[in-house]
Specification:
By secondary structure, the protein is an all-alpha fold. The protein contains six helices and no strands. It has one domain. Helices cover 72% and strands 0% of the residues.
Length: 103
């Protein structure tokens, strides 16, 4: 899922994400549907690492049909990425200029 997201988004701004939202949602939905079928534990672990609220995940699992779950999960991922981009824009990090500190 993270690969699908980075493939579509790369290193983009919030404005660019909003421009590609339909495309990103479609790709994420397909990726999430495949993960739900083949690797549900990995999907949930990935969502946990992205800091997606567990209550929202459980609400979707309990209140949506099986066919709607991938799309709803994709919407959660997009919203979380949107918040992360907004936070990064609001609190930019300075690059480390010490060559010994880089890996």
């Amino acid at each position: 899922m993270e690969n699908a997201l980075s493939k579509v988004l790369g290193d983009v701004s919030l404005h660019q994400v909003e421009d590609k939202e339909g495309e990103v949602l479609e790709i994420l939905t397909a990726s999430i549907a495949e993960m739900l079928e083949k690797e549900p534990d990995l999907l949930l672990s990935s969502m946990y690492r992205m800091d997606i609220d567990e209550r929202k995940i459980l609400q979707i699992l309990n209140s949506h049909s099986e066919n709607d779950i991938p799309t709803e999960f994709a919407k959660l991922v997009l919203e979380r990425q949107r918040v992360a981009l907004m936070t990064r824009a609001k609190f930019p990090q300075k690059k480390i200029s010490d060559p010994e500190a880089s890996f």
